[in-house]
Fold:
Amino acid sequence: MAPKTVSDLATVAINAHGGLARWRRLKTVSAHLLQGGVLWKLKGQDGVLDDVHLTVDLRKEWASHRPFGQPDRHSLFQPDRVAIETSDGLVVEERANPRDSFKDHKFDTPWDSLQLAYFAGYAMWTYLNTPFLFTLPGVQTKELDTWHEDGETWRRLKVTFPQRIATHSTEQTFYFDQRGLLRRHDYDVDVAGGAPAAHYVSALANVSGVIVPTKHRIVPRQPDGSSAPTPLVVSIDISDIEFS
Structure:
């Protein structure tokens, strides 16, 4: 089988964030998250993920948040299964094919605990594997016209994900500055009624040679592609990042 090819912009972005060779030597990343925004209360899950420890797999789609709802519990996310376990491995709740449970959901439809674990798991897996996930089998990349914002010109990459990858939406757009560093990420949140989002990242950190955004601010996206300043849908501040 021929090696997968990616667009020139995808290659530029991957190299700017540390390079694929370095990334492939790593297996997991863990971090401390402080999270806010209106989404959690709207979904009936206010406070659950305010202050958590996250672990994400870099080889397969897997993530875990701890604590999750109670001090001795953690979540386990995979595309085809989500669970909540105690610290000694007892399964408290689990659900196969979790994406199916979001059918007919709207932006203000409440989530149960397993739906929260699924959303948070795939979202953080996506964010912490960007831009290296562009090289995964079945992922397609195509450069779009440039975008002008705040006096800057950003290059845009349309990324199409295969169905087997759990993420916000099949098509997403990533914005990179002239150095190839991520600045913004657009998607429609399919599990929340297709809500259009503009996701800004900043405060880049170099961790083990990999460039990681440590501040994430997610706001609504307007029909013309511009972002609305309010409400702040989700905020994520990341610290204590460790690769292994």
